[in-house]
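Folded chain entry —
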Amino acid sequence: MSDTSWGGATQAPSSDAETPAFWLPRAQLQRLLDLLTARGYRVLGPVVRDAALHFDTVTAVTDLAVGWRDEQSPGHYRLEHTDAPQVFGIVHGPGGIKRHVFTPREPLLQITMLHAEPDGPAPGFRAEARLPEPERVALLGVRACDLAGLAMQDRIFLHDRFPDPHYAARRAGLLLIAVGCTRAVSTCFCVSMGTGPAPTGGYDIAMTEMEDGFFARAYSDAGRDLLAALCLARVGVASRDRERDAFAACAESMTRALPHDSLRELLYDNLTHPRFDEVAARCLSCANCTLVCPTCFCHDVRDEPSLDGNASLRVREWDSCFNPEHAQVHGLNFRPHVRERYRQWLVHKLASWVDQFGASGCVGCGRCISWCPVGIDLTEEVAAIAATPGAKS
């Protein structure tokens, strides 16, 4: 078997038969947490906070979202607690894993004025890079759509012409434990984007939760070392069929889709379509969709001078193409209306992103649908454009 590099881990092989699967009983999940902690990782797992799912520090299984399930639809997200023992019953929350490598706000550079000393050099300034402290972080419960989003972030921040040192510092210490989806919510459409429901690459360990435990496979040296230390029993072929059936049932339950192969041409050919006016009448330009998106990476860089003028901190913070200031240049805003901003987001995400990066900017997670306050559904918008009489395709 040959491994293909993808981010910090390795890409999954084309056939599960090539990779040994092991059985982790639910009662022994705590052993995995303890092992990760003992090896110096800070473990971040899915927890319920503020009525939503977030990744936060966990030390015990009881810290995780045990027994919780989510209900999602356009503009609607609700959690419900049940008596079920399932640990990863919530498909996902608004945060995802993007913020753990590409943080919402971080310092880049500290600039300090140097004052003249007697018989010393002329005054000037000192600029010092502010890189994050190295940290080993294990992300537990990463979904396939988020792995696809992370692969795109890697493409932009690591594998482009100018790698980003701040992103690289966080990414280097990341260990990824994926969880395959055996359940979908109504806003999921990862199957049509080729990103799920089973993880397809870019992780160290993949787990699939069943009624009484987890299938586990390792796809990196770090992952293989962890599973070996747990001394788990090997899973037979018959048991693995249960996993494949669960993934198939999850895929078949998805009711939304995008026409992945024809999206680019459809949108390029319909830039003046009246549907953009209709959606603009509803859109609040609030930027929720870009904040929860696993691939959106727009950001601003600004300087924050001290009150005494002797120092300045250069910071990077998330931005959005929905913010009016995002399109502001000297004397002109080239996207002054919501119509232009929504069209820019949709066409870039689904069409020109392919030209830039060789893949769609949408991973089919459906977060932008659930977390839109007015329930705008990009799959519905694309379908409306395609279905309009006279639309080009």
Remarks:
- The two ends are 41 Å apart (CA to CA).
- Residues 10-252 form one domain.
